[in-house]
Amino acid sequence: MTTALITGASSGIGAAFADRLAADGHDLVLVARSTAVMEEHADRLRRAHGIAVDVIGQDLAEPDAPERVLAALGGKPVDLLINNAGFGTCGRFEDIDAEQDRRQIMVNVAALVGLTHALVPGMLARGSGGVINVASTAGFQISPHFSVYSSAKTFVLNFSLALWAEYRGRGVNVLALCPGPVETSFFDVIGTREAAVGGKFITPEVVVDAALKALARNRGYVVPGRSNFALAHLMPRRPRKLVALIAKRVTGGVVGATRRPDAVAVNT
Ligand SMILES: NC(=O)c1ccc[n+]([C@@H]2O[C@H](COP(=O)([O-])OP(=O)(O)OC[C@H]3O[C@@H](n4cnc5c(N)ncnc54)[C@H](OP(=O)(O)O)[C@@H]3O)[C@@H](O)[C@H]2O)c1
């Protein structure tokens, strides 16, 4: 029996990880802000699979969020860390709320690094463990109109591959999970489905299956779905300025398309 800690477990890809890992017999720790939603889900999983599920209600945009999560764990060892919580902003940079972008960096980057710092030493000491960091196909590209989101996901991709290299042969597998568009509430939060630029929509279950297979094989990163894989890899990288200018045309559809982003709304 192993324990998996999943951030952003209250919906979408995180909830699908919880369903799958519970069915595989793992104990779970669910982390997000929507405590009531997670408690209900936890009850269902306990009853269906006879596993232990803890719920930690935590806003991961808070600077001390990793320390608080660690304190709430009370010394429970975590064998699999899934840094999945995240949201995006899009549109013209000057139109995006600065506080919203600050929170985005705290959740998508700072909390992810903090939780990795907090939990990987225990995995190394035990000689086994895994980390899945949810990046995006956006992390492969320069993306005008998604400047903060895509740059944060580039960080997650490169950070994960750096740790993958560091921990190879030390019992800890690290994976950057890089989905293209997935059917979740991500697009309600970002404010428009126009944010699914290119790529083919797939389900959270397909994403989770691809991630767990890739982690078991210590692949370093995975782009679920053939056409999303092709898109992520066929995009030219150079010359950088020309790529940025072409990408600006491709992503232009989100300008003016967003309803008021509601990323701080929470269903407690
Ligand atoms: N859907 C896509 O097309 C797509 C594509 C590529 C990558 N991704 C990435 O996949 C990950 C999961 O997103 P999703 O598609 O499953 O979207 P989602 O259904 O909107 O789920 C986002 C999760 O993140 C949590 N979260 C957001 N802000 C938080 C905060 N301040 N503190 C704690 N938890 C927070 C949410 O929980 P609460 O609101 O309850 O806090 C929720 O559980 C994200 O990192 C996203 O960038 C998604």
Brief descriptors of the model:
disordered C terminus, binds NADP nicotinamide-adenine-dinucleotide phosphate, 268 residues, Rossmann fold, globular, 9 helices
Describe the protein's architecture and organization.
With 268 residues, this protein is an alpha/beta fold. It has one domain (3-254): Rossmann fold (3-Layer(aba) Sandwich), CATH 3.40.50.720. Helices cover 46% and strands 13% of the residues. The chain contains nine helices and seven strands; from the N terminus they run βαβαβαβαβαβααβαα. The protein has helices at 12-23, 35-49, 65-73, 98-126, 147-167, 186-190, 204-216, 226-234, 240-250, and strands at residues 3-7, 27-32, 53-57, 80-83, 129-134, 172-177, 221-222. The protein has a seven-stranded parallel β-sheet, with helices on both faces. Helix 1 (12-23) links the parallel strand 1 (3-7) and strand 2. The longest helix is centred in the middle third of the chain and has 29 residues, at 98-126. The radius of gyration is 18 Å and the shape is globular. NADP nicotinamide-adenine-dinucleotide phosphate binds at residues 8-14, 32-34, 59-61, 84-88, 107, 134, 136, 179, 181-182, 184-186, 189, 266.
